[in-house]
Amino acid sequence: MNDKLTDIFNEIRASYESTLGKRAFHSANAWRSKKEEPDIMRSQFAVDRDRILYSGAYRRYHGKTQVFSFTNMIDEEMTNRNLHIAYVSQISRTIGKYLKLNTELIEAIALGHDLGHCPFGHDGETALSQCCEKNGIGEFHHNIESLHIVDHISRKGKGLNLTFQVRDGIVSHDGEVHNTQLIPQTNKTEEDIQNYIYAKKAGQDLQFMPVTLEGCVVRITDTIAYIGQDIEDAIRFNILTRDELPAEQVAYLGNTNSQIIETLIKSVIINSYEQDFIAFDKETSEHLLALKKFNYKRIYTDENVKKSNSIIYRTMPI
Which DSSP letter does residue 70 get? Predict the structure, then answer.
Protein backbone atom coordinates (compact mmCIF):
# COMPACT_ATOMS: atom_id res chain seq x y z
CA MET A 1 0.00 0.00 0.00
CA ASN A 2 1.10 3.58 -0.67
CA ASP A 3 3.22 4.78 2.29
CA LYS A 4 1.50 8.17 2.36
CA LEU A 5 -1.91 6.52 2.57
CA THR A 6 -0.72 4.28 5.40
CA ASP A 7 0.59 7.32 7.27
CA ILE A 8 -2.75 9.09 6.86
CA PHE A 9 -4.68 6.08 8.17
CA ASN A 10 -2.36 5.72 11.16
CA GLU A 11 -2.48 9.43 11.97
CA ILE A 12 -6.28 9.63 11.90
CA ARG A 13 -6.68 6.41 13.87
CA ALA A 14 -4.25 7.63 16.54
CA SER A 15 -6.09 10.95 16.69
CA TYR A 16 -9.39 9.15 17.28
CA GLU A 17 -7.91 6.86 19.92
CA SER A 18 -6.56 9.90 21.78
CA THR A 19 -10.11 11.21 22.27
CA LEU A 20 -11.19 8.10 24.18
CA GLY A 21 -11.40 8.20 27.95
CA LYS A 22 -9.82 5.66 30.28
CA ARG A 23 -13.15 3.78 30.59
CA ALA A 24 -13.61 3.35 26.84
CA PHE A 25 -13.06 -0.07 25.30
CA HIS A 26 -10.30 0.09 22.69
CA SER A 27 -10.50 -1.78 19.42
CA ALA A 28 -7.02 -3.20 19.93
CA ASN A 29 -8.32 -5.16 22.93
CA ALA A 30 -11.21 -6.77 21.04
CA TRP A 31 -11.19 -10.37 19.85
CA ARG A 32 -12.99 -12.62 17.40
CA SER A 33 -13.66 -16.35 17.53
CA LYS A 34 -11.74 -16.65 14.25
CA LYS A 35 -8.63 -14.50 14.01
CA GLU A 36 -8.30 -12.15 11.04
CA GLU A 37 -5.62 -9.95 9.57
CA PRO A 38 -5.98 -6.31 10.72
CA ASP A 39 -7.70 -3.89 8.37
CA ILE A 40 -5.29 -1.04 7.68
CA MET A 41 -8.06 1.54 7.17
CA ARG A 42 -10.64 0.48 9.77
CA SER A 43 -10.64 -0.48 13.42
CA GLN A 44 -12.10 -3.85 14.39
CA PHE A 45 -15.35 -2.18 15.44
CA ALA A 46 -15.57 -0.21 12.19
CA VAL A 47 -15.21 -3.51 10.34
CA ASP A 48 -18.05 -4.96 12.43
CA ARG A 49 -20.21 -1.92 11.77
CA ASP A 50 -19.75 -2.23 8.03
CA ARG A 51 -20.41 -5.97 8.01
CA ILE A 52 -23.70 -5.37 9.79
CA LEU A 53 -24.63 -2.35 7.67
CA TYR A 54 -24.14 -4.20 4.39
CA SER A 55 -25.68 -7.49 5.49
CA GLY A 56 -28.92 -8.93 4.17
CA ALA A 57 -30.33 -8.90 7.70
CA TYR A 58 -29.83 -5.15 7.90
CA ARG A 59 -31.70 -4.63 4.63
CA ARG A 60 -34.59 -6.58 6.13
CA TYR A 61 -35.06 -3.85 8.72
CA HIS A 62 -36.85 -1.93 5.98
CA GLY A 63 -40.60 -2.38 6.24
CA LYS A 64 -40.60 -3.99 9.69
CA THR A 65 -42.96 -2.05 11.92
CA GLN A 66 -42.71 -0.97 15.54
CA VAL A 67 -45.95 -0.68 17.54
CA PHE A 68 -48.50 -0.09 14.79
CA SER A 69 -48.22 -3.01 12.44
CA PHE A 70 -50.24 -2.03 9.39
CA THR A 71 -50.26 1.79 9.45
CA ASN A 72 -47.23 2.18 7.17
CA MET A 73 -49.42 1.22 4.23
CA ILE A 74 -51.46 4.39 4.73
CA ASP A 75 -48.96 6.67 6.48
CA GLU A 76 -45.32 6.51 5.47
CA GLU A 77 -44.24 8.74 8.37
CA MET A 78 -45.08 6.16 11.03
CA THR A 79 -41.99 4.78 12.72
CA ASN A 80 -40.59 1.50 11.44
CA ARG A 81 -37.74 -0.68 12.66
CA ASN A 82 -35.28 0.97 10.29
CA LEU A 83 -35.97 4.41 11.76
CA HIS A 84 -35.73 3.10 15.31
CA ILE A 85 -32.28 1.70 14.56
CA ALA A 86 -31.17 5.07 13.17
CA TYR A 87 -32.47 6.84 16.28
CA VAL A 88 -30.74 4.41 18.65
CA SER A 89 -27.49 4.79 16.73
CA GLN A 90 -27.61 8.60 16.72
CA ILE A 91 -28.64 9.02 20.36
CA SER A 92 -26.20 6.44 21.70
CA ARG A 93 -23.30 7.95 19.74
CA THR A 94 -24.17 11.39 21.14
CA ILE A 95 -24.08 10.02 24.68
CA GLY A 96 -20.91 8.06 23.96
CA LYS A 97 -19.13 11.13 22.60
CA TYR A 98 -19.70 13.14 25.76
CA LEU A 99 -18.73 10.21 27.97
CA LYS A 100 -15.52 9.76 25.92
CA LEU A 101 -16.45 6.20 25.01
CA ASN A 102 -15.78 4.31 21.78
CA THR A 103 -18.48 5.49 19.37
CA GLU A 104 -17.42 2.96 16.71
CA LEU A 105 -18.22 0.13 19.12
CA ILE A 106 -21.46 1.87 20.08
CA GLU A 107 -22.52 2.27 16.45
CA ALA A 108 -21.83 -1.37 15.59
CA ILE A 109 -23.92 -2.60 18.53
CA ALA A 110 -26.71 -0.13 17.80
CA LEU A 111 -26.97 -1.11 14.13
CA GLY A 112 -27.08 -4.81 14.95
CA HIS A 113 -29.13 -4.95 18.12
CA ASP A 114 -32.52 -5.58 16.47
CA LEU A 115 -31.47 -7.69 13.47
CA GLY A 116 -33.48 -10.60 14.84
CA HIS A 117 -36.68 -8.67 15.41
CA CYS A 118 -39.55 -10.31 13.58
CA PRO A 119 -42.21 -8.37 11.63
CA PHE A 120 -45.15 -6.72 13.42
CA GLY A 121 -43.27 -5.42 16.44
CA HIS A 122 -43.70 -6.92 19.87
CA ASP A 123 -47.02 -8.58 19.05
CA GLY A 124 -45.19 -10.37 16.27
CA GLU A 125 -42.51 -11.46 18.71
CA THR A 126 -45.10 -12.76 21.18
CA ALA A 127 -46.96 -14.66 18.46
CA LEU A 128 -43.75 -16.18 17.09
CA SER A 129 -42.62 -17.13 20.59
CA GLN A 130 -45.89 -18.98 21.15
CA CYS A 131 -45.31 -20.90 17.91
CA CYS A 132 -41.75 -21.76 18.94
CA GLU A 133 -42.86 -23.05 22.33
CA LYS A 134 -45.59 -25.18 20.79
CA ASN A 135 -42.98 -26.76 18.55
CA GLY A 136 -40.62 -27.51 21.42
CA ILE A 137 -37.76 -25.15 20.57
CA GLY A 138 -38.17 -22.75 23.49
CA GLU A 139 -39.18 -19.13 23.65
CA PHE A 140 -38.30 -16.67 20.89
CA HIS A 141 -36.38 -13.55 21.93
CA HIS A 142 -35.24 -11.12 19.28
CA ASN A 143 -31.94 -10.28 20.99
CA ILE A 144 -30.99 -13.96 20.93
CA GLU A 145 -32.09 -14.24 17.31
CA SER A 146 -30.03 -11.15 16.46
CA LEU A 147 -26.93 -12.94 17.71
CA HIS A 148 -27.95 -16.13 15.90
CA ILE A 149 -28.21 -14.18 12.65
CA VAL A 150 -24.76 -12.60 12.85
CA ASP A 151 -23.17 -15.85 14.05
CA HIS A 152 -24.88 -18.54 11.97
CA ILE A 153 -27.20 -17.18 9.25
CA SER A 154 -25.43 -14.26 7.55
CA ARG A 155 -23.11 -14.97 4.62
CA LYS A 156 -25.00 -18.14 3.75
CA GLY A 157 -24.41 -19.68 7.13
CA LYS A 158 -20.80 -18.62 7.59
CA GLY A 159 -21.64 -15.76 9.94
CA LEU A 160 -20.04 -12.32 10.16
CA ASN A 161 -17.30 -13.25 12.66
CA LEU A 162 -17.94 -10.12 14.73
CA THR A 163 -15.89 -9.20 17.77
CA PHE A 164 -16.98 -10.60 21.13
CA GLN A 165 -17.72 -7.08 22.39
CA VAL A 166 -20.17 -6.29 19.56
CA ARG A 167 -21.82 -9.71 19.77
CA ASP A 168 -22.22 -9.30 23.52
CA GLY A 169 -23.74 -5.83 23.12
CA ILE A 170 -26.27 -7.21 20.65
CA VAL A 171 -27.44 -10.09 22.83
CA SER A 172 -27.31 -8.08 26.08
CA HIS A 173 -29.66 -5.27 25.05
CA ASP A 174 -33.14 -5.29 26.55
CA GLY A 175 -35.26 -2.16 26.11
CA GLU A 176 -38.22 -3.77 27.85
CA VAL A 177 -36.48 -3.98 31.23
CA HIS A 178 -36.27 -0.73 33.19
CA ASN A 179 -32.89 -0.02 34.76
CA THR A 180 -31.82 3.13 36.59
CA GLN A 181 -28.19 2.04 36.53
CA LEU A 182 -26.28 -0.37 34.30
CA ILE A 183 -22.97 -1.76 35.54
CA PRO A 184 -21.05 -3.72 32.89
CA GLN A 185 -20.24 -7.35 33.58
CA THR A 186 -16.62 -6.99 32.54
CA ASN A 187 -15.55 -10.58 33.21
CA LYS A 188 -18.14 -12.13 30.93
CA THR A 189 -17.17 -15.08 28.75
CA GLU A 190 -18.58 -16.87 25.72
CA GLU A 191 -19.81 -19.57 28.07
CA ASP A 192 -21.82 -16.93 29.97
CA ILE A 193 -23.53 -15.88 26.74
CA GLN A 194 -24.44 -19.45 25.81
CA ASN A 195 -25.75 -20.16 29.32
CA TYR A 196 -27.88 -17.02 29.14
CA ILE A 197 -29.34 -18.06 25.78
CA TYR A 198 -30.22 -21.52 27.09
CA ALA A 199 -31.85 -20.14 30.25
CA LYS A 200 -33.71 -17.35 28.47
CA LYS A 201 -35.22 -19.69 25.88
CA ALA A 202 -36.29 -21.95 28.74
CA GLY A 203 -38.33 -19.07 30.17
CA GLN A 204 -36.06 -17.79 32.93
CA ASP A 205 -36.24 -14.05 33.70
CA LEU A 206 -32.64 -12.86 33.79
CA GLN A 207 -30.68 -9.63 34.10
CA PHE A 208 -27.77 -9.86 31.65
CA MET A 209 -25.55 -6.79 31.63
CA PRO A 210 -23.27 -5.93 28.68
CA VAL A 211 -19.54 -6.48 29.01
CA THR A 212 -18.67 -2.86 28.09
CA LEU A 213 -19.89 0.61 29.00
CA GLU A 214 -20.56 1.08 25.30
CA GLY A 215 -22.98 -1.84 25.38
CA CYS A 216 -24.67 -0.29 28.41
CA VAL A 217 -25.10 2.98 26.50
CA VAL A 218 -26.92 1.21 23.66
CA ARG A 219 -29.10 -0.70 26.10
CA ILE A 220 -30.22 2.43 27.97
CA THR A 221 -30.65 4.31 24.70
CA ASP A 222 -33.08 1.73 23.31
CA THR A 223 -35.76 3.06 25.67
CA ILE A 224 -34.81 6.70 25.08
CA ALA A 225 -35.30 6.18 21.35
CA TYR A 226 -38.75 4.61 21.47
CA ILE A 227 -40.57 6.03 24.51
CA GLY A 228 -41.36 9.47 23.08
CA GLN A 229 -41.56 8.36 19.46
CA ASP A 230 -44.24 5.80 20.29
CA ILE A 231 -46.26 8.63 21.84
CA GLU A 232 -45.88 10.75 18.70
CA ASP A 233 -47.00 7.80 16.56
CA ALA A 234 -49.98 7.15 18.85
CA ILE A 235 -51.05 10.78 18.56
CA ARG A 236 -50.65 10.61 14.79
CA PHE A 237 -52.75 7.43 14.74
CA ASN A 238 -55.44 9.06 16.94
CA ILE A 239 -54.90 6.60 19.79
CA LEU A 240 -54.49 9.52 22.21
CA THR A 241 -54.07 13.29 22.29
CA ARG A 242 -51.19 15.31 23.67
CA ASP A 243 -53.47 16.70 26.37
CA GLU A 244 -53.94 13.17 27.71
CA LEU A 245 -50.27 12.70 28.52
CA PRO A 246 -49.57 12.43 32.27
CA ALA A 247 -49.07 15.98 33.56
CA GLU A 248 -46.36 15.16 36.09
CA GLN A 249 -44.20 13.36 33.53
CA VAL A 250 -44.80 16.03 30.89
CA ALA A 251 -43.71 18.74 33.33
CA TYR A 252 -40.48 16.90 34.12
CA LEU A 253 -39.52 15.05 30.93
CA GLY A 254 -41.14 17.23 28.27
CA ASN A 255 -44.19 17.40 26.05
CA THR A 256 -42.68 16.16 22.77
CA ASN A 257 -40.36 13.40 21.64
CA SER A 258 -37.56 15.92 21.13
CA GLN A 259 -37.90 17.30 24.66
CA ILE A 260 -38.08 13.83 26.21
CA ILE A 261 -34.95 12.69 24.35
CA GLU A 262 -33.03 15.80 25.40
CA THR A 263 -34.00 15.39 29.07
CA LEU A 264 -33.02 11.73 29.13
CA ILE A 265 -29.72 12.25 27.29
CA LYS A 266 -28.67 14.99 29.70
CA SER A 267 -29.54 12.81 32.69
CA VAL A 268 -27.41 9.94 31.39
CA ILE A 269 -24.43 12.17 30.62
CA ILE A 270 -24.51 14.00 33.97
CA ASN A 271 -24.84 10.82 36.01
CA SER A 272 -22.47 8.63 34.00
CA TYR A 273 -19.55 10.97 33.29
CA GLU A 274 -16.28 9.50 34.59
CA GLN A 275 -18.21 6.68 36.25
CA ASP A 276 -17.95 2.91 35.88
CA PHE A 277 -21.65 2.65 35.09
CA ILE A 278 -24.31 4.17 32.85
CA ALA A 279 -27.27 5.65 34.70
CA PHE A 280 -30.18 8.04 34.97
CA ASP A 281 -30.63 10.02 38.16
CA LYS A 282 -33.28 8.57 40.46
CA GLU A 283 -35.97 11.19 39.77
CA THR A 284 -35.61 10.99 36.00
CA SER A 285 -35.70 7.20 36.16
CA GLU A 286 -38.93 7.27 38.18
CA HIS A 287 -40.61 9.60 35.70
CA LEU A 288 -39.40 7.49 32.78
CA LEU A 289 -40.81 4.35 34.38
CA ALA A 290 -44.14 6.12 34.96
CA LEU A 291 -44.23 7.22 31.32
CA LYS A 292 -43.41 3.70 30.19
CA LYS A 293 -46.33 2.37 32.26
CA PHE A 294 -48.56 5.00 30.65
CA ASN A 295 -47.45 3.84 27.21
CA TYR A 296 -48.22 0.22 28.05
CA LYS A 297 -51.68 1.10 29.26
CA ARG A 298 -52.67 3.63 26.60
CA ILE A 299 -50.69 2.49 23.55
CA TYR A 300 -49.21 -1.01 23.60
CA THR A 301 -52.30 -2.67 25.11
CA ASP A 302 -54.85 -0.30 23.59
CA GLU A 303 -57.98 -2.08 22.37
CA ASN A 304 -57.70 -0.65 18.85
CA VAL A 305 -54.03 -1.59 18.56
CA LYS A 306 -54.70 -5.12 19.80
CA LYS A 307 -57.66 -5.46 17.46
CA SER A 308 -55.65 -4.46 14.40
CA ASN A 309 -52.85 -6.80 15.45
CA SER A 310 -55.09 -9.79 16.18
CA ILE A 311 -54.53 -11.11 12.66
CA ILE A 312 -50.87 -11.64 13.59
CA TYR A 313 -51.74 -14.35 16.09
CA ARG A 314 -54.00 -16.08 13.58
CA THR A 315 -51.51 -16.06 10.72
CA MET A 316 -48.14 -16.53 12.44
CA PRO A 317 -48.60 -20.32 12.87
CA ILE A 318 -49.09 -20.63 9.11
Answer: S
Domain ranges in the chain are 41-315
Residue 68 to residues 74, 236, 279, 312: CA-CA distances in angstroms?
A: 11, 11, 30, 12
Q: At what angle do helices 81-98 and 103-112 cross, to 10 degrees?
A: 160
Cβ atoms of 155 and 47 within 8 Å: the answer is no
Q: pLDDT tens for residues 212-246?
A: 999 999 999 999 999 999 999 999 988 999 999 99
C-alpha triplet 141, 198, 309: angle, nearest 5°: 20
Q: What is the topology classification, in CATH, of domain 41-315?
A: Hypothetical protein af1432 (1.10.3210)
Alpha carbon distances (Å) from 86 to 83, 95, 225, 279: 5, 14, 9, 22
Kindly give the residue spans of alpha helices, DSSP state H, lying in the chain: 3-18, 44-53, 56-59, 81-98, 103-112, 121-134, 142-148, 164-172, 190-201, 213-236, 247-253, 257-272, 282-295, 303-315
pTM above 0.85, yes or no: yes
Q: Are 234 and 297 in contact (CB under 8 A)?
A: no
**Distant-in-sequence, close-in-space partners of 277: CB < 8 Å, separation ≥ 6:** 181, 182, 183, 184, 213, 216
